[in-house]
Amino acid sequence: MGGINWSELFPGRWSPVIFTSYIALFVNQGILVTWSQKSGYYEYNIVAVVLMTEFLKLIISTVLYCKNNNILTLFHEIKKYKTVLLLYMIPAFLYCLYNNLAFVNLARFDPTSYYVLLQLRVVLTGIIFQVIFNKKLSSIQWFSLLILTVGCMIKHFNVQVLNQEFHVNISLGFILIQTTCSCLAGVYNEYLLKKQGAEIDIFVQNIFMYIDSIICNIIAIILLSTFEINTFSSVSINASLQPKVILIMINNALVGIITSFFLKALNSILKTFASAMELIFTAVLCWILFGIPINTNTVISIAMVSFAVVIYSRNPVQNAPLKEKTPENSRLLTSSIV
To answer: Are 331 and 171 within 8 A, CB to CB?
Structure first.
């Protein structure tokens, strides 16, 4: 443990808090979504829930911004940075697809297998990170990413894809689409936070993201209606107001906000390791809560993920420095986390 470079791994005062909060909220999300199922199906409409969650994120971000600013200032910022608002349409669309596929895939896989399969994004994230930020990863960093990927794929063998029906292959296709969306959206969102819109208040950037996300989800609902899928029937609305579903929306809203702080203060590479660590906690909690067994493959997978995290922590990617607004950034982090 003495070889871990803590100052580079967590460069800011609130970095460890953001890191652990991110993991806790994501683990909680997988468990809540699984808890809300009945025999692998949802009584509520997932697209409607995702849309309502985006509205909740927008409300929370607006309230947090207006806590220290005037509402007229917000409108001025939106007008001033309308180009960045349009740029956020790209990650908003990718996150829209990702969020909806999360419900679909959690209905097809148990939470531990779901998070393991989701780690296929690790190497892809590394490649996209290098391209967008023009920053080459070291051999040790790539080695840790490789171990992380192999460790995640070991658990995948439990799915026994070759012996399953065709619909399982479709499920794996959905996972592949979701992982690709996650990689592209995460790295591009980090780029907007640190480069293109670095001088913009983080809550304003969140508002940009959620405005665009709401538009994307409304378009998705219109498309579903075209195929005669009634998204907002009275049954689906009542089902979406159940306590379990409300908890999912609140938790997912917090996930969205903490993710923006994560990408602002840390980076996408560390985010992949945080996501992999979710595997450990999800496996244990699902064994306790749902009786989902922890088999040999799961234990080996968890061990390799843990080993990869230790290797990476000794030589982490240097975080891109924030603009010279550290007092303001510290104040924003303090006011939002406390």
So the answer is: no
**Distance in angstroms (rounded) separating the CA atoms of residues 123 and 182:** 12
> What is each CA distance from 197 to 176, 187, 211, 270, in whole angstroms?
29, 14, 16, 21
Give the whole-angstrom CA distance, residue 140 versus residue 132. 20
SS3 assignment, position 69: coil
Q: How many CA atoms lie within 13 A of 219 on its CB side?
A: 11
Question: What pLDDT, in 10s, does the model give residues 238-262?
Answer: 666 788 889 999 999 999 899 889 9
Place of tokens 């994307």: 216
* Structure tokens that stand for 38 in this block: 């009945």
Which amino acid would we find at residue 236?
S
Q: What is the DSSP letter of 173?
A: H
Q: What is the pTM of this model?
A: 0.74
- 244: which 2 tokens? 């379990």
Residue 135 confidence class, pLDDT cut points 50, 70, 90: confident
Query: Which amino acid type is present at position 81?
Result: Y
**What's the rounded Cα separation, in Å, for the pair 21 and 62?**
21
Check if the beta carbon of residue 46 is closer than 8 Å to that of residue 100.
Answer: yes
Tokens encoding 176: 């592949």
* Residue linked to tokens 């406390």: 338
With both helix axes pointing from N to C terminus, report the angle between 139-156 and 121-133 in degrees, rounded to the nearest 10. Answer: 150
> H helices within 36-110, ranges in order?
46-66, 71-80, 82-87, 89-108
